[in-house]
Amino acid sequence: MRLNGLGVSPGIGIGRALVVTRGTRNLQFRVPERRIADELARLHAARAQSREQLQHLKERIAAAAGAEHAYLFDAQLLMLDDPMLVDRAAAIVRAERLNAESALARALDEIASLFDRADDPYLRERKGDVADIVGRLTMNLRTNGDPGDLLGDVEGPLVLVADELSPSLIAQLDWQRLAAFITDAGSWTYHTAILARSIHVPAVAGLRHASTVIQPGALIAVDGSTGDVLVEPSTDVLAELDARAKKRRAYERSLDEYGTLPSVTQDGTTIRIEANVELPEEAARALERGAEGIGLYRSEFMLAGMHAAGLDEDAQYAVYRRLIDGMDGRRVTVRTFDVTESELGVVQAGGSSRAPLGLRGLRLSLSFEEVFQTQLRALLRAAAHGPVRIMFPFVTGVEELRLARIAVEQANDALRERGISPPDVPIGIMIEVPSAALTVDLLADEADFFSVGTNDLIQYCLAVDRTDDRVSKMYEPLHPAILRVLRQVARGARRRGLPVSVCGEMAADPVVLPLLAGLGLREFSMAPVAIPLAKQVVRGLRLPDTAKLASRALRAATAADVERTLTEFLSAARTK
Length: 576
Known about the structure:
Strand content: 5-15%
Largest sheet: 9 strands, mixed
Distance between the termini: 45 Å
Oligomer: single chain
Number of helices: 26
């Protein structure tokens, strides 16, 4: 079987399918033979717990409404001992080495198909009763711990197959065992896709039904460049994919030398290239690839598997300190939590999370002072160990930035009362909503630096939800409006003498990089894996040529016209 989606992280990965649906509530995978007995024990324990729960419910209903109303639970109790359900699931575990949850789902499908063929409408309706008891069994099977613990000794390498894969789940798993991941939903700028590129794992998104048609344990080959996903490929196909993977690795090795070279154009202009990272452990990879610093540390990845309440000041300080120490004196820019209420683990009274235009980013931090102050104090303490910049996300205007600066001063005062003297820390903002881009001259009076988050900026300027594959094709980084906004931000920052970088996915695109330089941008931050190629591109540029390119692109009427202008520029550059 061949599926095709959107390749969002290049490379080829081959492994056994681990199917994840409904967040982490439904994990389906093949277990090692030594784990079969453990799975059977889990299954029988879930049946015993379900029996106890149903008996209690039956007694409660009988006491409240009479014994005649408790007969429904008698039927469910009988189902627990029906050989077609739990016993059939146990047989599937033994024969196919599936985890208990997968085996139960398979048994339910078999029973449901029998009910669907029944002539009696009453029998067909009983399918819901069986689904109810399977739901109870699955609930009682569910692990209370870290998903990574449950998968600790599952045979790898693994290909994660998900309806929608959260970055927090990926962050909890052992990346060395991940061959690739594929999702039904998502796009190039989806957070999971960005993380895949950052940790150098092939990924394909937008497959729509992969999580329902791929069986757990199936052998999967993923090409993150073409978007192809092959299920149970032949030996010949695997050999071909292996050859392509070796060729790609050789190409990537050929770029390694650029990581050690300065990022300077042919006419002598320095272009600063930094790294986007999610974990302190990525500092070593960033330096190895030639990063001059960390342009974006996504601090919200510390929340993977926990809420902000479980991440105290000392815990955060330790993480920031590891990152700073790992960068060996190079600049580190930390973005404060860019999450929604539910992701932060807090909800205001009478309110609810309504991402992406609800309470998120800086406005969320300002609404929960204790969480914000904890993060700021940890950052200011860590700044004593190396050059740190604090950056606020989703800023919409001067008022929010002023409130954030007041919060920083409050955190400074609190530390001074404890006998700690924090250093001065530059304060910057993300330019990622139109209101910030249009008032960049006003914000420049209050900020020390800007960083353009092109992923959200494009989404909000063009009114396109990048996670909705029905309109994601309208997400156009080369739209004339986006080029004009970027030029305005670059000019506004330059007039006030403020540094401005681009940390969105546009910065990592080697085709677009000459255009961004031509628009006046001189600092870029990207996934570590993209840095050597970016340096190769920079070292081949002459800024007068990029300025002419930008001038022509700014006169284009459509994104397609801009793309043609870029193609002509690159073709001419190759012939020189």
